[in-house]
């Protein structure tokens, strides 16, 4: 299936590894020029080398930390220099530290709010005028299945990513008439380094082995396995496509059927 986005330009946040890299790679396979960003120059350079070697889309990269106050300005400048503009924005951020609601101090909330919510909204607002002018744009925000079924010991993530749900739905209704879609993609248990880190933290908290925690987790997934980054990336690329022009304001679960809510 031709997704109809060859030649488009995409900025993919937090794409040095994991879910962000999965979406960036899938977009590049459709002929998109992607700009990767993150805090590991070595990994970003290697990822771009691999994407460019595939000979479909094109990849560049920029070092950026969403916790920094000038991150939005830096990213916009890099996108203009390397892409010439942004047709597709993939909002993705690293996850906060595990913990309960009682562990959420005001300082932690403020710190992670800056990188996980404020910068995402500021960057999106900055790219909208150009998208409106050309009558086409895609905003895709990566969140978590915790926004529909709160995940134990991830109170910070459940809280901050949940804030993006109301924002995205509001935004989608405001920009739909301009040919712009705004969707969210919710990963379940996709096998990434982040999942390994969280399983390790849960194993320590529960006094169990990593193998025990992983086995119990998989047992709760109807598909009977963890998802792959490639599967997640393909779903993300579809939501960024021309083919998905009538899909907006939605939250797509990529979780193997794990979420129990309707």
Automatic annotation (TrEMBL):
Gene3D superfamilies registered for this protein in UniProt: NAD(P)-binding Rossmann-like Domain (3.40.50.720)
Pfam families: adh_short_C2 (PF13561)
Residue ranges that the Swiss-Prot or TrEMBL entry lists as coiled coil: none
InterPro entries given in the database record: NAD(P)-bd_dom_sf, SDR, SDR_fam
Domain of life: Bacteria
SUPFAM superfamilies assigned: NAD(P)-binding Rossmann-fold domains (SSF51735)
Protein family membership: Belongs to the short-chain dehydrogenases/reductases (SDR) family.
Identification of the protein by name: SDR family oxidoreductase
Origin species: Rhizobium helianthi
């Amino acid at each position: 299936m031709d997704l109809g986005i060859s030649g488009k330009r995409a900025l993919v946040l937090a794409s040095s590894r994991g879910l962000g890299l999965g979406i960036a790679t899938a977009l590049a396979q459709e002929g998109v020029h992607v700009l990767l960003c993150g805090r590991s120059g070595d990994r970003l350079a290697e990822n771009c080398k691999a994407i460019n070697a595939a000979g479909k889309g094109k990849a560049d990269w920029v070092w950026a930390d969403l916790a920094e106050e000038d991150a939005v300005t830096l990213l916009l400048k890099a996108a203009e220099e390397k892409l010439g503009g942004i047709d597709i924005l993939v909002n993705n951020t690293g996850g906060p530290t595990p913990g309960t609601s009682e562990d959420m101090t005001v300082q932690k909330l403020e710190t992670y709010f800056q990188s996980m919510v404020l910068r995402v909204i500021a960057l999106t607002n900055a790219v909208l005028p150009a998208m409106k002018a050309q009558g086409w744009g895609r905003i895709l925000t990566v969140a978590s299945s915790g926004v529909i079924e709160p995940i134990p010991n991830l109170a910070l993530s459940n809280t901050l990513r949940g804030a993006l749900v109301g924002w995205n739905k509001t935004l989608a209704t405001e920009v739909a008439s301009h040919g712009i879609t705004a969707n969210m993609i919710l990963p379940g248990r996709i096998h990434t380094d982040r999942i390994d880190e969280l399983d390790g933290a849960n194993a320590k908290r529960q006094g169990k082995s990593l193998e025990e925690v992983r086995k119990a987790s998989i047992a709760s997934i109807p598909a009977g396995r963890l998802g792959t980054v490639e599967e997640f990336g393909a779903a993300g690329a579809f939501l960024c496509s021309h083919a998905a022009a009538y899909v907006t304001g939605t939250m797509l679960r990529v979780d193997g059927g794990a979420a129990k809510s309707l």
